Amino acid sequence: MGALASVGFRKLSEGVHWLMTHQSYGYVESARRMDSWHRLLVPVLGGVLGGLTIYFGAFWSRRKNTTDYMEAIVLGDGVVPTRSSLVKSLSAMFSIASGASIGREGPLVQLSAMIASGIGRLRKTPTLKLRLLVACGAAAGIASAYNAPIGGALFVAEIVLESLAMETFGPLVFASVVATLTMRHLLGEKPLYEIPSMRLPTNWEILPQLALGLIAGLAAPWYLRLLRRSEWAFSKLHLPVYLRMALGGLVVGALSIWHPEVCGNGYSVVNRVLHGEYIWTVLVVVLVLKLVATAATFGSGAAGGVFTPTLFAGACIGSLVCQMFKPFWPGHALQDEAFIVVGMGAFLAASTHAPIMAIIIIFELTLDYPIILPLMLACVVAHYTSLAFEKKSIYSESLARKGMGAYQRQLSTLRVSDLMKRDPVAVHDTADFREITSKFVSNRFNYLYVTDPAGAFLGAISLHDIKSYLSEEELASVVVARDILHEDIPTIAAHASLAEALDRFTQHDGERLPVVIDEDSRQLVGSLSKTDLILALAERSKTPTQTAAEKAT
């Protein structure tokens, strides 16, 4: 469903683009074919329409602040409001269709996460699992945008959840793969970027690519500060959102008169850079103007993503570094395409502080193994270099502003009773074999709890243990629950901390722990899922870093 939403958004954007420009080409090529006054006015029109959508949509959505998928996963209860998401996505469509310098991955992820949240709420999914379901929707959206299933899963795991535990990563991969297969079925398997086959002629070539990682790591903090400074400057104007976005569109339109390459998300320009169509002097100008256009679009409040413009900047930096080293490099000529691709990954890793995601998503775009070694090293060098100068990523700032510290402090007070599922499936100690097997068939558990008539926990029956009785009909007819239960099953009190629960799980190989009122009465009141516990602990483990970032802000 996330992939279908992605296809629908793309088609609608193309239709709105045609209405505004009367062109059916890409954003850059459409700008080239338009008169100067048309180039200037189209982004302004897109900004006005996008701003008015947000302005009037605020009354319809009944929310002062739009809750995006990151807030719902990290800060909230997994609820991504439908009205706010549709308003935000519609605004993004006007901006993107008019050639604003911003990526479409933002609304694609938002729509996919909205659908996932809606499905979860219809099924009355518990909060922690609802947040995981929204994370799966976000992963599907990223995978749909970039045709990169592993990268989509890692984006959410590394940047949003900050956890690679299989309890969370497995569902993310599943959602990403299904979304990618759906996209390939509907739109074909054409790669996002037309990347020629690459090679690494000698091992020595890795040295200038490591230098590229260092340069990307030094440049990324300034890029992040440019975006934040632009956002601050636009906020000081105290203009309505539609006038702010119109002003941002005016900046893009004015720059496009000189260089139409600033329009759109930059896909076509990166493809031209990969094919060596720019000399370094032109490339420097294009890079600077694109950064200004992106900062103006982002700062004005336009809805959309900065992931793709970040790839654009990395590609230009990679090409420039390659051309800088070429005159001094002996023997084999340096391959421009390799530096461009490594530059995309390095700058992405430095800006997002997610080097694993950057390595994988760039590798998925190329599927060229020789590039993986310099890509890995450059991404790691860029990440640590950037981290030395800027602790916050391109995404962490907004989360810190929206109350990460307060939410984490609230989460740290959770007890087992806050996460447990009440009224677990159980049988009395006198239950016969037929009732026991019926419970196992209707519930996908490895252990079935056994209680006395008063509801006190006595132990559990293992699914493995009943298998031997299935072929012994005579024995099965006389066996009751107390004959085959295990009394050494660990329990956890409802008032216990999450750390205590984690310690108890080390003594038990099951997916659930029985929850009792206290260790003395042993009254069974619920069960605690290992998946829910890991999700909660993964959130709590982020508290010190995020709280420090919030204080620094």
Describe the 3D structure.
Helix 10 (206-235) crosses helix 15 and helix 13 runs antiparallel to helix 14 (307-325). This protein has 553 residues and is mostly helical. It has helices spanning 2-21, 27-33, 36-61, 69-75, 82-97, 105-122, 127-146, 149-161, 166-187, 206-235, 241-258, 267-274, 280-299, 307-325, 336-352, 355-366, 372-389, 396-401, 404-411, 416-419, 433-442, 463-466, 473-476, 481-484, 498-505, 530-540, 543-552, and strands at 421-422, 426-428, 447-451, 457-462, 492-493, 512-516, 524-529. The strands form two sheets. A four-stranded mixed beta sheet has the order 1-7-6-5. A three-stranded mixed beta sheet has the order 2-3-4. The protein contains 27 helices and seven strands. Helix content is 65%, strand content 5%. The longest helix is centred in the middle third of the chain and has 30 residues, at 206-235.
> Main sheet: which strands, in order across?
1-7-6-5
Number of helical stretches of at least 4 residues? 27
Structural class by secondary-structure content: mainly alpha
- Please give the oligomerization state of what you see: single chain
Residues in β-strands, percent: 5-15%
Poorly predicted regions are: 401-411, 541-553
Give the % helix.
Answer: 55-70%
Question: Overall pLDDT, averaged?
Answer: 82
Cα radius of gyration in angstroms: 27 Å
Shape: elongated
Number of strands: 7
Largest sheet: 4 strands, mixed
Distance linking N and C termini: 38 Å
